Structure formats: C-alpha cells, structure tokens
C-alpha cells in the first residue's frame, strides 16, 4: 500500500480566534527514501502552540495552521532507505521535521541549529508543502527527526518529552550538569517540572526558585533539594556564589534576573527556555559583571540528545505530571487553559479524528 498523500487535523485560521479550531484536510510532504509516516495517537499541548496560534510570536505562515509538536504514533510507511524503523513501531516526532543534513552543524549533532531547519508546523518544507503538526491524524518526516520510544514509557507520558523534556535536557547536558553540580530551576510549570527531574537524574543538587510557595510540595516530590520563594526580599543573599547553572523556564517578561544572576559562581550560566511574547524588563548587562556570568538560550535538541533523554527517562522513571488527557476535538479548551495559566503542568490530546 502506498504512503498517504493527505491527512486531516484541527487547525486555526485567525490568531484573534485562537480557540476556534476547524477540521481540514491538508497535504503531506512529498514522500522520499528516508521518510517515515506515522499515524498519530497522542500529541502534547505545548506553550509554543499557544504563542504561535495567538500570534504572540508573529503571524501565521499560512491561511490555516495545525499546531502540535509533541507527537506519538505508530509507523505506517517507511521509505526505501529507512533502516532504523519498521511498520508498526511506536515512535515520536518533536518540534523539528527537516534540516539540510549536509552542513557542519547537521554533521556534528547540531541539526536543531541548521539554518535550513523546518519547524513541525507553521513553516514550509523545501518542496513548498506547508508543515502541519500533531493535532492531526498523520505526519511524515525524514527519519532523522523520528525517535524510538522505550517500552517503559507510556505514550501519553512520552509525548510532552519531545519538546518540553528535550528543551530542558539539551541545555543541561551542553552546560555540564553532572554529579556534584548545583543547579537552579526557575519556574515550575510544563518545562520546569521536567527540568527538576532531569537535573536530579543527572546527579545535581537542585534548588527551585518560584514566585510563590504553591508548588513547594510538588517540587520536593519531583526531586528538588531546596525551594526558594523569589517574592521574598533578599531571597538571593543566601545563595551568593553557590550555583553552577540556572535554567529559567519562566514564561514571563518580568523575573528577578539581577538577583538570580548574583547567585551564580564565576562564569556561571543562566539559560532561558522561557520565551515570552515581550522582552525582559529592567535587566542591565551590568548585572553580569561581578561574576562574569552569562545568559544564553537554546533550541530544542538534537536526535542524539533526544535518544539519550528518552533512555534516561525510562531508566529513572521520569514522567510528566499530566493535568488531563483530552480528545483532540477539545483542543480549544486545552489551548485556553494554557493561555490563562490554568494548567499546572501538561495537557495531552488523544486522536479522535479516526
């Protein structure tokens, strides 16, 4: 049986009506020798979906966009050159579906930084076909961007790892989070609650910084060693020169950056995985002078990192806290809940289109 040429999904046409999803049929990318096609079973609801379909990160790339890039499904077709995957296998696709695979970045496990990379949705493949995401029945992509899911991970648990999990895991390993390091985690939501677990699994002493105490118990259950309320004046003083690395998952334009930077050791790094619609407020580069500290960001992760992350999660029992699993037909409800900050951790959608 030949590979399908179309799929159907839930999408948005107007960023001012971001909960008004409509079902449409759309074209899949042209099949190639290294492509894998999968039938989608689950898709996580990511903050990126909200930023995109509300217009927070700019206009939509097409008249209709199907979001979703935390995708779990079963392989239905493989190209002639695919050797890693077989029909019927459970696999995942994350936030990237294409890169040139030829440049130095691609050849050195940095395909997530390829200048020709294509996002899973709200973008275009080189053949001109619009990329559409996981709130749908089917997705097709090059096998480089497909990940085998370990048997120990439930599908609904694995889905959020393919963006949220990888987005925090990659910068941690790239910035040297290992046994003996002290790591700060800022913001305990969909990203931050993964960050606590992965930092602990990598051997770090984990300090959680949160603007309120309402997730203190959860943080300790997830593996945090200490919990700090940043709304308390002078919270940072106890931690001066104590922290090797900070990962900020706060999706907010105003966080206590100056105070947080002061806790870093000489040359310490703060990585922001939170990407708010508005720029950070009231932060001066001078805050980095006293300790030669750095701020950086990150873009998802490589296939090598994704496979290592999934293996670690399976070995250590890492999984998301899922508020609800909803049918895809309730995508609007899920998006509104994330937008209004009514989701504590993660929502996952289950395919109900077929």
UniProtKB/TrEMBL annotation:
Keywords: Metal-binding, Oxidoreductase, Zinc. One of its GO terms (molecular function) is oxidoreductase activity, acting on the CH-OH group of donors, NAD or NADP as acceptor. InterPro entries: ADH-like_C, ADH-like_N, ADH_Zn_CS, CAD-like, D-isomer_DH_CS1, ER, GroES-like_sf, NAD(P)-bd_dom_sf. It comes from the Eukaryota. Pfam families: ADH_N, ADH_zinc_N. Gene3D superfamilies: Medium-chain alcohol dehydrogenases, catalytic domain, NAD(P)-binding Rossmann-like Domain. Residues 11-349 form the Enoyl reductase (ER) domain. Its cofactor is Zn(2+). Belongs to the zinc-containing alcohol dehydrogenase family. This is Chaperonin 10-like protein. It comes from Papiliotrema laurentii.
């Amino acid at each position: 049986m030949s590979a399908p040429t179309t799929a159907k999904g839930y999408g948005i046409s107007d960023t001012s009506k971001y909960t008004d999803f409509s079902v449409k049929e759309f074209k899949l990318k042209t099949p190639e020798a290294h492509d894998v096609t999968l039938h989608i079973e689950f898709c996580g609801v990511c903050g990126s979906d909200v930023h995109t379909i509300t217009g927070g990160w700019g206009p939509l790339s097409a008249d209709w966009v199907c979001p979703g890039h935390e995708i779990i499904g079963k392989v239905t077709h493989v190209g002639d050159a695919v050797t890693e995957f077989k029909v019927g296998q459970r696999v995942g696709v994350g936030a990237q579906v294409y890169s040139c695979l030829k440049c130095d970045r691609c050849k050195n496990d940095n395909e997530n930084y390829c200048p020709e990379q294509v996002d899973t949705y709200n973008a275009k493949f080189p053949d001109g076909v619009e990329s559409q995401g996981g709130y749908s029945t089917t997705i097709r992509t090059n096998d480089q961007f497909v990940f085998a899911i370990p048997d120990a991970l439930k599908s609904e648990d694995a889905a959020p790892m393919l963006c949220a999990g990888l987005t925090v895991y990659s910068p941690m390993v790239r910035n040297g989070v290992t046994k003996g390091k002290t790591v700060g985690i800022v913001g305990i939501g969909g990203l931050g609650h993964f960050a606590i677990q992965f930092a602990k699994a990598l051997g770090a002493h984990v300090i959680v910084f949160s603007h309120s105490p309402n997730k203190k118990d959860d943080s300790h259950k997830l593996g945090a060693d200490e919990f700090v309320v940043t709304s308390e004046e002078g919270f940072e003083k106890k931690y001066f020169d104590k922290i090797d690395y900070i990962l900020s998952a706060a999706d907010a334009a105003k966080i206590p950056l100056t105070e947080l930077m002061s806790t870093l050791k000489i040359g310490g790094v703060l990585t922001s995985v939170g990407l708010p619609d508005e720029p950070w407020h009231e932060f001066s580069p001078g805050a980095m002078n006293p300790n030669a500290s750095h701020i950086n960001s990150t873009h998802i992760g490589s296939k090598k990192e994704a496979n290592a992350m999934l293996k670690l999660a399976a070995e250590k029992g890492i999984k998301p806290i899922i508020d609800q699993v909803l049918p895809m037909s309730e995508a609007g409800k899920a998006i509104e809940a994330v937008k209004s900050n009514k989701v504590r951790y993660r929502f996952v959608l289950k395919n109900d289109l077929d």
